[in-house]
Amino acid sequence: MKNIIKQTAKQYGVTVKEVRRDIAEMIKVGMSSTDPEAVLFWSQFGGKAPTPEKFLAVMASSVNTRL
After folding, report:
1. Which is it for the CA torsion 32, 42, 50, 8, positive or negative?
2. Three-state SS at 1
3. Tell me: the pLDDT tens digits for 11-62?
4. Are 24 and 49 spatial neighbours (Cβ–Cβ below 8 Å)?
């Protein structure tokens, strides 16, 4: 997952730190949702915000199981 973050940073001309910060912010926003499906999704992390790498791994796994 670190390579994905590095590739994204390079693609958009920003730092890895910026990409990680943006992902962490979106995780924070997502975890505050009251939508039942969102609450169910975020519950798998035990109430703690996942690292950007963990979040991306779970998302990638989710996509792979739906294909």
Report:
1. negative
2. coil
3. 999 999 999 999 999 999 999 999 999 999 999 999 999 999 999 999 988 8
4. yes
Give the CA distances from residue 30 to residues 12, 34, 36, 50, in Å, rounded to whole numbers and listed in that order.
Answer: 23, 9, 12, 11
Angle at 46 between CA 41 and CA 49, to 5 degrees: 80
Q: Pick from 23, 6, 25, 24: which is nearest to 15 by CA?
A: 6
Q: Give tens-digit pLDDT for 18-27.
A: 999 999 999 9
Nearby residues of 30 by Cβ (< 8 Å), 6 or more positions away: 38, 41, 42
> Burial, 52: exposed, middle or buried (Cβ in 10 Å; 0-12, 13-18, 19+)?
buried
